Amino acid sequence: MSARKINLTVNGEAVEAEVEARLNLADFLRQAIGLTGTHVGCEHGVCGACTVIVDGRPARACLMLAVQADGAKVETVESLGTPESLSELQQAFRDRHALQCGFCTPGMLMTIEALLRVEGSPTREEIRDVLSGNLCRCTGYQAIVDAALDAAEARRGTR
Amino acid sequence: MSTRYFGAAVPRLEDPRLLTGRGTYVDDIVLPGMLHAVFLRSSVAHGRIRSLDPSAALSMPGIRAVYAMADFVSFGSGPMPTMAPHPLLKSPITCSPLAVDEVRYVGEAIAMVLADSRAEAEDALAAIELDIEHLPVVANARQGIADGAPRAHSGRDSNVIATLRGSHGNVDAVFAAAAHRFSETFEIHRGGCHAMECRGVVAAPEPRSGELSLWTSSQSPYMVRRHLATYLGRDEADIRVTAPDVGGGFGPKANVYPEEFAVALAALACGHPVKWIEDRQEHFLATTQQRDQFWSLEVACDAAGRMLGVRGRCIHDNGAYAPYGLILPATALASFPGPYALAAFDLSIDVVLTNLVPTTPVRGAGRPNAAFVLERLADTIARRLNLPREEVRRRSFVRAEQMPYVTGGKMRDGSPVAYDSGDYAKALSLVVDKIDAAGFEERRAEAATRGRLLGLGFASCVEDTGLGPFEGASVRVTPAGKVVVATGAASQGQGHATTLAQIAADALGVDLSQVTVKAADSRIFPLGISTIASRVAVTAGSSVEIAARKVRDKAIKVAAHILEAGEHDLEIENGQVRVVGVPDMNVPLSTIARVLSGSAGVPIPAGVEPDLAATGYFEANQLAFAYGSQACEVEIDPETGDTRITRYVVAHDCGRLINPLIVDGQIRGGVVHGIGNALFEHMRHDEAGQPLTATYADYLLPGAAEMPDIEIHHIETPSPRNPIGAKGAGEGGTIPAVACVISAIQDALGPAAPFITMHPVSPEQIVEWIDQTRK
Ligand code: FES
Ligand code: FES
Q1: B261 and B377 assigned to the same domain
Q2: pLDDT score for A159
Q3: Would an 8 Å CB–CB cutoff place A58 in contact with chain B?
Q4: 2Fe-2S ferredoxin-type domain: from which residue to which, for each copy (chain A) (predicted)?
Q5: Residue B108's domain spans which residues?
């Protein structure tokens, strides 16, 4: 197999690695650099569990090769808050019970995070629309929409 | 005792970890020297393995082994044990961990490849030479029951493995005397599991101790341990099974799977830790589903539309094996007569083998099927007699003053069913009221001006919850004053780490942040059954209550000794035992725990066992019956058949709510699962038994954009059958949801449309019905 060298930024840190051309970004993040917060639910680009932010935009890490991330700025769920200090969005998820098993959650968080950076006051419908690329079998989505609205409001208040 | 936390909508203790990417799901476990397994699976629905040649695969890079069942003989052999034996099943109908001779569904595991990486293992799969002779296929249950059908198992003389019967009263007399009799046939399809985390297993032999450790994405880790121990001829004590964070279960993960055994066997055979992570396509092929049931039913009612009796039969597709015995069809049968006080019923279910992946319970487990047919029969009566649908139900319900109500039905174990508590008519009135049924015709008229069809639907259900025999718990106060709750009940997102902690915190008067719940690890708690059948709040919750009270009594006893006070003068609050009215006279729980932890030569108070800890096993020998009603509005575009659920209202009684935030989450998720079954989820197979919908492009799950906001109203009738008054909440959202949505679609299509007797209902189907109506 042909290995290629890549240089990228992951959660603000420079990462240099040798990767096989066929390695996808999700597997790279999870296996090569141990960031297991990004989950893999379908490996065919529908469930959104693997969503990360690449150069400011949400991307499906299962549909992107690690070599395509060469030179990119990648952000994963690990870049948000910590258990002791959750981000506003994570806090809103907790307050609204927007996660049950937590498997879809990192992808949900990164999708909404990317939305809130460009749209500070999304409507319920807009949020539901943006989330149409993220499946959740547990929550029925309503609490996730509520949490996104709360987080948008909290961010508006603090900015 | 304080109830600071019981009933409060406290945020979950497990969240900070899961929200920051710090969960540990099976795929996050990495062990030194671990190999990766992939399975070679049958590509035909029924066939005989003629030969398997792994030699080309073995010479590929990174490949460590290719195993077939014969390679495991020194560790274990033969078919898998059945999880739930049933007297009608003379011998278990299960597959081997790897197929030996005959394969009976597309996706049945035949061999496994072990490699340094999963990618290399997958590369090698294609190089295994497999020769399979095709055998005739049973591609659905109606075909399987027909005369002259091929056999799903070539050795069996019939595809019908059992006929279950449930009856009560003199059904013939009731039908003969009834004012009206109506018959309908129903085709029900429920689809698969689709937890967002697929299944996964890691097995690690411990070379020094000879023990075997297994981490599995399971709802039943202790069942995996028990059956695996038997299969391997080992003692349970030498096998550790843990369910780490599990990304959703919904029923199918309660099954003990061939892959769990095969991975364990492979780890023993190669001496390395082995990991297998199911991919989504395998999930479509090899994770159990709930598929088709065909019902032919007749209902009898009096002149006023009161339901009196139901009779008929069902053909149930059980798939290629019966790993879970007859639990699924038996649960469907045990769900009659639902919320209705029937003078008689007589039902039978033919359980049929097909060459499709086995079926086992999916959220609701046969109860949504029973609810669908009963609710459609109620709607039939309303339609034929021109009565309001609510009125037929009100006249037919078991009434509050009849509680406890003996239905005449039998539980899966044959014991009589007695509903414990509740007011079914009240739940229905609540949703009728909250959805503003009175103002509906006005809304319908408004929608008509926009060219849209609006429909209103109702459905009700009763649900047996808290299935026995037990789910135990231990509660321990550490010398640091922290409380550790341990239980065998596995969690797949239900928030047990919070609800069980709430119960313990109240009993011991400690802050919730001081309580940790450890679950589903056989080294931490010795016994467990399964997180199924909406049973954990009732069973484990009650056990935590019992154990925590014992700990409390023990703490008070020791404190009385230390404070030289009478036990009756003491209370437990704020992590201390103190004298009532004299808060300065107190002793912290941490001190008591330290005293009971013992120091060399220092006696502990006489008559008290060491360790500030206790174990509780609530004997759950009587079910708690939850119930509820749902109402929804749908809006249909008659040109495209596009169906939007615009409003959804739920009234639900699951007894005392431990945590409303969590209960509401269970209900909303459950309703959405039901909406998926009503409108989207369809696992299709062709006549050769080949799955046609094995991606999320072909198999549609409910998504955020299509789902409504769901309004929930609780009725809290405490169950008298457990110390915390709880009833299960995990499936009540799902059970009536399909019936509710279909009732609304029927209402939207109007009285001239055909009566809807099937689901899921696609937009094409709706357009077809509209066209038929217009003709
Ligand atoms: S895993 Fe990437 S979209 Fe599902
Ligand atoms: S929380 Fe389980 S899939 Fe979304």
Answers
A1: no
A2: 46
A3: no
A4: 4-80
A5: 31-135+194-286
